[in-house]
Amino acid sequence: MDYADYQHLTFDRRADGVLLITINRPEVMNATNARLHWELTQVWLTVDADPAARVAVVTGAGRAFSAGGDLGMVEDTAGNPEAIARTMREASDLVYNMINLDKPVVSAINGVAVGAGLVVALLADFSIASEAARLTDGHTRLGVAAGDHAAIIWPILCGMAKARYYLLTSDFLDGREAERIGLVSLCVPADKLMDTAWDVAGRLARGAQPAIRWTKRALNNWLRQAGPIFDQSLALEMLSFMHPDVLEGVRAIREKRAPQFPSAR
Q1: What Rg, from alpha-carbon coordinates, does the chain have?
Q2: Three-state helix/strand/coil letters over 114-175
Q3: Confidence check: pLDDT of 194 > 90
């Protein structure tokens, strides 16, 4: 794909080889519909093929990074084997395409980050959160297993005890707590977020490119080793979409109430 082919991602080049990628559905807090979900899998291949891009910075338009999956997309997926298979393929591609991109990625987490947005935020090589950021994996609140990216990277970033707590409860973390437990690289005041991201990205863009990229490639072997764990978690997440809990999870989110899952009655 060419950058012009993207509908929900916008791009801005800087002279130093830094490419700004903005998730651009601000009217719905950058929630991922089917098209955006697919675009987030493809953009890393486009960046990889772009000789002018040395570093990517990704953020969200408006007040959110990305508020997770569009609920209509979740409803369309529930109980639909073809949609489940497509979603599973895309979720796998998103994770592995980010892992296999040797060029560094910096996430500037400017607000809420959930679901596929959180995948991008946390799989970035440098994750910089605003103090106003709010993060949650959110899967168990929806009634599905924590697939996406959680099992491959949360235990590595913040340890098994914290990973279990936040993934099983779907509790929110703010930027400060995310930095304290090691889930993100840095937490900064909201008005310093982009300046910090530009500084980090600029230093990477001015550095020795093979050395930086090959260091990233070697470090990401920790994630590749966890690939079978991720693959199983993703399969179990997709299996969850065949269970009635997921439709109750959607209803509860729409109605802003606690879910009453059929499996817990």
Answers
A1: 18
A2: EHHHHHHHHHCCEEEEECCCEEECCHHHHCCCCCCCHHHHHHHHHCHHHHHHHHHHCCCEEH
A3: yes
Place of tokens 């089917």: 34
d(CA 109, CA 187): 9
Contact between 172 and 165 (Cβ < 8 Å): no
Surface-to-core class of residue 146, CB atoms within 10 Å of its CB (0-12 exposed, 13-18 middle, 19+ buried): buried
Residue in this structure with the two tokens 């651009």, named with its chain if needed: 24
- What letter does residue 206 receive in the DSSP assignment? H
- Pairing of the two strands 18-23 and 55-60: parallel
Q: What is the pLDDT of residue 68?
A: 85
Q: Kindly state the average pLDDT of the residues 202-223.
A: 98
Please state the rounded mean pLDDT for residues 182-190: 98
Q: Which fold has domain 3-190+205-211?
A: 2-enoyl-CoA Hydratase; Chain A, domain 1 (3.90.226)
Q: Which two tokens stand for residue 39?
A: 């675009």
Q: How confident is the model at residue 125 (pLDDT cuts 50, 70, 90)?
A: very high
pTM of full prediction above 0.90: yes
Domain positions in the chain: 3-190+205-211
Query: Do 115 and 21 contact (CB within 8 A), yes or no?
Result: no
